[in-house]
Amino acid sequence: MQVALPALVRELGRADYEPVFAAMRAFTDARKADTPDELWIVEHPPVFTLGLGADRSHVLADHAVPVVQTDRGGEVTFHGPGQVVIYLLMDLRRNKPGGKLYARQFVGKIEQAVINTLAAYNLGGERIAGAPGIYIAAGPRKGAKIAALGLKVRGNGCTYHGVSLNVAMDLAPFSWINPCGYAGLETVDMRTMGVNVTLAEVQHKLAAELVQQLATAGTPSAPNNELN
To answer: Taking the complete model, does pTM exceed 0.85, yes or no?
Structure first.
């Protein structure tokens, strides 16, 4: 029986998207049954990325920002400075307390980690059925997207790509695309929502929430604290 190993968190700093994408695939190609899972924290220079089923026409104007085709799920999104990006290089086949972790649970736990992170800063986040990611739950910006999710799950249960959370960004590039394929979808960051916090703090908070959520199978756990 395989035993779940603790995730190793690596901080990559600011790094171009394509070399990190290549490194994720190389890591996954080379991993063995006992290879520890890893979470990679990174901040990217401006880049648009396309999922496998993405429609290139959803990039309305690239303004000389690179557009990169990837092998994750989902549509087009933007990565840039001031955004937390965490890639999850996991083996879902491993037994964890509570059983094995299945793809749908995996997605739910990632989303819950974002919701818990936002709650720590008194921001309410919610899921919207059929639209992966996390959205503002209440107030005048209800329904605005603050976090995006895109994954690759190979047939052997190994995953890469991950989640992004907008902290303090130049949001203009989101208006140059149909985010996640939705025309007119408003995108916000934590700063827009009145939270002034360093990128490093949110990187570490979200990573800690992900490690906690992914330590077990079963239902994602909500934060202990309520919103103020």
So the answer is: yes
